[in-house]
């Protein structure tokens, strides 16, 4: 799609009827969908995706009423769709244009894939509607009784269910990896704190000889364990923020609510307390005389 020296490439072109906006949710940032008379008359009118409009026009220009060239032919812009982003990060929903079906046939012929969208009355039975649609398409295709269907009827609910299943699988795997990392991290904290207690045994004996209580020693090592975990949590949050910024740059949904930030830091604190309690207690119970003689 071109306009002067500017061009948008890799554009998805859809030839649609005037009823397309009745079966699909179309949000316009400016302009409108083409009328039945424009569609039935194969008028050279076009609806642009937001990415196409941003490529061909400046932010101070109104694309509606302007002329662009599709496959070398002039088309008048009737509307611009609102930004939708990418579908599962695979392809952009904004890098598309729509033209009347008959205009598409004139340019590209009839040898392209065809999709028929149907919106049914929500009070009716879905199974009955699907059965009626199957009969209509079989009759239109001249299929005899006993012949297999050479078409598919998909429901949005099935697509939504598949996406939901995929999301649940991703969540389950993420939770498993998070739990595994917490266990490994907790073991790591226990090991680090035991080594710290062993290396500072003489220091502990000196502190006890000067009047430090068990509680003083216990809280000292607990605070060290918690501090280590909180530092690890802050580093992880920094990495997550970078990943979220990268995902948003790819038009993928990514967010970092403050509630999850607080929850993650609290979880780090809890892991530090659990992982540090045994080493801290062992340090608090050291005999000061034996600790002072430790080499």
Name some characteristics of this structure.
alpha+beta; 295 residues; six-stranded mixed beta sheet; two-stranded antiparallel sheet
Q: Concise description?
A:
This protein is α+β, with helices and mostly antiparallel strands and 295 residues long. The protein is 55% helix and 13% strand. It contains ten helices and ten strands.
Can you put this structure into words, describing what you see?
The protein has helices spanning 20-23, 36-40, 50-56, 101-108, 126-141, 156-199, 201-209, 214-249, 258-284, 288-292; strands at residues 2-3, 6-7, 12-16, 28-31, 45-48, 67-70, 73-81, 86-87, 91-92, 96-100. It has 295 residues and is α+β, with helices and mostly antiparallel strands. The strands form 3 sheets. Strands 3, 4, 5, 6, 7 and 10 form a 6-stranded mixed beta sheet that branches. It has a two-stranded antiparallel sheet with strand order 1-2. It has a two-stranded antiparallel sheet with strand order 8-9. The radius of gyration is 33 Å and the shape is elongated. The model has no long low-confidence stretch (mean pLDDT 85).
Summarize the SSE layout with pairings:
Elements: E1 2-3, E2 6-7, E3 12-16, H1 20-23, E4 28-31, H2 36-40, E5 45-48, H3 50-56, E6 67-70, E7 73-81, E8 86-87, E9 91-92, E10 96-100, H4 101-108, H5 126-141, H6 156-199, H7 201-209, H8 214-249, H9 258-284, H10 288-292
Parallel strand pairs: 3-10, 5-7
Antiparallel strand pairs: 1-2, 4-7, 5-10, 6-7, 8-9
Helix pairs in contact: 6-8, 6-9, 8-9
